[in-house]
Design goal:
about 130 residues, rod-shaped, single chain, mainly alpha, 5 helices
């Protein structure tokens, strides 16, 4: 279904507005002569439109909730991404520590084998001298 800004303005609905796609928001912004750039993020255009629709008394102050919730959603998303990054970073550190531990164990094993060889040769050398 094609979005028509004029039809939306005839019967504006906050829930419908909240579900508009970026292209629909662009059409509505053009219809309302709201200054914006297409390169803006969807949420930025949406925030501009919320302000305009409240200014025109089309939406009540309760529509600001969409603006605040969306800003909080962006913060939440950013925090989730930071958490995910930190978790991956911790996993990488853990793998690095495990790798170093395996290397250290292997070095100790090699060292033990060398010591055993030295002991064997020492015993063989001692036996051959007697």
């Amino acid at each position: 279904m094609v979005f028509k800004a004029s039809e939306f303005m005839n019967n504006p609905d906050v829930d419908e507005f909240d579900n508009l796609k970026k292209d629909d928001l662009v059409l509505l912004a053009k219809h309302l002569n709201v200054e914006f750039k297409v390169s803006m993020r969807k949420q930025t255009i949406k925030n501009l439109l919320i302000d305009k629709l409240i200014e025109l008394d089309i939406f009540g102050e309760d529509a600001l909730q969409l603006k605040v919730e969306s800003a909080n959603m962006l913060d939440l998303k950013r925090m989730e991404m930071e958490h995910e990054f930190k978790m991956k970073e911790m996993e990488m550190r853990k793998l690095e520590i495990e790798k170093k531990e395996r290397e250290r164990e292997r070095e100790m094993e090699i060292h033990r084998e060398i010591e055993l060889e030295k002991i064997k040769h020492g015993i063989v050398h001692t036996q051959s001298n007697t």
